[in-house]
Amino acid sequence: xxxxxxxxxxxxxxxxxxxxxxxxxxxxxxxxxxxxxxxxxxxxxxxxxxxxxxxxxxxxxxxxxxxxxxxxxxxxxxxxxxxxxxxxxxxxxxxxxxxxxxxxxxxxxxxxxxxxxxxxxxxxxxxxxxxxxxxxxxxxxxxxxxxxxxxxxxxxxxxxxxxxxxxxxxxxxxxxxxxxxxxxxxxxxxxxxxxxxxxxxxxxxxxxxxxxxxxxxxxxxxxxxxxxxxxxxxxxxxxxxxxxxxxxxxxxxxxxxxxxxxxxxxxxxx
Length: 270
Prior knowledge:
By secondary structure, this protein is of the alpha+beta class. The protein has four helices and 15 strands.
């Protein structure tokens, strides 16, 4: 049995046995981590009626939910932490459960009002959706599909530094899938646009939920077959070929799909 069994609908709300608390884009953590066997304290009356709670599913056999606090409160023995700061610090299954919680909270906050007619929305009676009773628009939690690809050339792989990243990571290329594209078409387009290379057949490696804020990353290894390496400088500030035995230490951690793609290539035999 896996650690987490997700629930795809809002109702019914069981009494939660495991709790995640979110406020202002951060999650409440104790010494045991971001999942609490009981709420750290009772919510004060001024906040209690404004707390939005959502059932996430079962965590290790217990019902688990997230509570959104509209007002940041201090809890004894706890601290507020960003989701990104937990990457590589907590178990992978814990990280992605908290990521799920954050995405559901963000969906709820972002769709209080209808994007079509502007009236207030309400919860769907069965599905995890917010619905406008006036124009019947239903909005479900949105996931954006992305491709992430490690371009290879024999025993070398292409690692890039992204212009907008603060950290000087050497990582794989990535991009959003556009309407009308499949994953392989998006891969070829993104590589050509970002670094000027043409690619051949892609080999699917795996996928990963990436809650920043809500992507599904679809990972590939793909061989370069032509073109000239020219980073576009808008998305990619630098791109270089590295031999599998000389990959720099500044690659993403193994918990990320990018890090897994690079390590998969390194471990391959020539």
